[in-house]
Write a structure and sequence with these properties.
The protein has 14 helices and 14 strands. It is an alpha/beta fold. The strands form 2 sheets. An 8-stranded mixed β-sheet has the order 3-4-2-1-5-6-7-8, sandwiched between helices. The chain has a 6-stranded parallel β-sheet with strand order 11-10-9-12-13-14, with helices on both faces. The longest helix is centred in the middle third of the chain and has 24 residues.
């Protein structure tokens, strides 16, 4: 069996790339040949045809081959990507490439990306976390003027493409409970499978199991990881909660932020107004080893997002034995049993967040949740268990129909 994993902007993606690599690495371990196909859909991409670059008009879509370790990554441009809906249209160059594989696995945030495969022959498996209108809710609320109108128009069109993408897919692998329920309500029972990605528990493990792990910070701390400049991460609520925590606890741990992007100038000004900047540590583009160390030595992990397809950072924290306080924003309730192995709070509830963090500063409760979190990840979300769900679907789709 040979498999193509199609990913939008593979080298720039965050959580999507993490999921794609989970699938890729575990398929390769099991002897399945895998290539990655990366859609370079940015307006300024040299591989794409762009309205604003007349020199590209008659060249057609360009391709490029690069290596990511031992994995071949085929990069494909798009046509006229200034208009977002054009990014989801198949091209003859991409379709020809996809037809070389037995299986095409699409890994994307929303279903519209499966449209790229609608002219190809192999079975299409769509791994998806959310829907376009849900994913963009926060962005649409915070963007006004002509730009806001443009986003609303594009979102309306792409929401329609979500439906076509789900029709195109032969199987849909969803990351979370709410997305599964949504697709069942839309009539996709026969092709929907709950299949969250897993993690390697030999890498993500507690500091007790990794005695050589170095603590990067010489104090207790609360940790949050993600693309923290993204408005969907709602760092404002996190800062508000931390400021309130300082008022109700006498010995508040530091707050550590790590991610590909850090809070912007506006958020940092807000932190200064709250009087918490002296308690912040920030790490951008940390190494993989340092990221694991940050997890292992944290006291509590906090996720303040307004929307999450699953929350790989929650899974990684739990595997390292760090109890989590997260907003109930879609994916987290697939991972956390509220008040059993972590806490779920309402989106935007800074009071609730502060109170639940305070509760987890109690060592007995923290230790109890830590042990339960580790057990859950080992039992339900380790990579060996999770990848088998994908492989079973592949074999089912490739089985000759009588």
């Amino acid at each position: 069996m040979n498999c193509a994993i199609l990913v939008p902007n593979y080298f720039l993606s965050g959580g999507v790339k993490t999921v794609a690599n989970f699938i890729k690495d575990n398929l390769i371990k099991r002897g399945i040949k895998v290539d990655v196909i990366s859609l370079k859909n940015g307006v300024r991409e040299s591989l794409s045809r762009s309205i604003t670059r007349p020199s590209s008009w008659f060249k057609g879509v360009q391709t490029n081959l690069v290596m990511d370790g031992d994995t071949r990554v085929y990069e494909y441009g798009t046509n006229w990507s200034e208009f977002e809906f054009q990014r989801y249209k198949p091209t003859k160059e991409l379709t020809k490439k996809l037809n070389e594989y037995d299986i095409v696995q699409v890994v994307a945030g929303t279903p519209a990306w499966a449209n790229l495969c609608r002219d190809s022959n192999p079975p299409i498996i769509l791994q998806v976390a959310t829907l376009t209108n849900i994913e963009r809710e926060a962005l649409l609320k915070t963007t006004g003027g002509l730009k806001g109108l443009w986003y609303k128009w594009m979102t309306k069109i792409v929401t329609g493409l979500d439906k076509i993408g789900m029709e195109t897919a032969d199987a849909i692998m969803v990351e979370n409970n709410w997305m599964q329920k949504k697709l069942l309500s839309l009539g996709y029972e026969s092709k929907t499978h709950l299949a969250p990605p897993g993690i390697d528990i030999s890498i993500f493990k507690s500091k007790k199991s990794d005695p050589g792990s170095e603590n990067l910070i010489d104090s207790d701390y609360i940790l949050s990881v993600g693309r923290l400049a993204d408005p969907r991460k709602d760092v404002r609520t996190l800062f508000e909660a931390y400021a309130k925590l300082k008022k109700i606890t006498s010995d508040t741990p530091k707050l550590v932020l790590a991610g590909k992007t850090l809070p912007g100038e506006g958020l940092m000004k807000f932190a200064e107004e709250l009087g918490i900047t002296q308690d912040l540590y920030m790490f951008q583009e940390v190494s993989f080893r340092d990221l694991i160390s940050l997890y292992q030595h944290a006291s509590i992990f906090v996720l303040s997002s307004r929307e999450e397809g699953l929350g790989m950072v929650i899974m990684e924290s739990m595997a390292c034995g760090i109890p989590v306080v997260a907003t109930d924003c879609g994916g987290p309730n697939t991972l956390i049993d509220d008040s059993t192995d972590g806490f779920l709070i309402k989106v935007g509830d800074s009071d609730g967040m502060a109170n639940k963090i305070k509760a987890l500063l109690d060592p007995p409760l923290n230790n109890e949740f830590s042990e339960k979190a580790i057990k859950k990840i080992k039992t339900d979300f380790n990579s060996d268990i999770c990848i088998q769900r994908y492989i079973s679907v592949y074999h089912w789709l490739l089985k000759p129909k009588i």
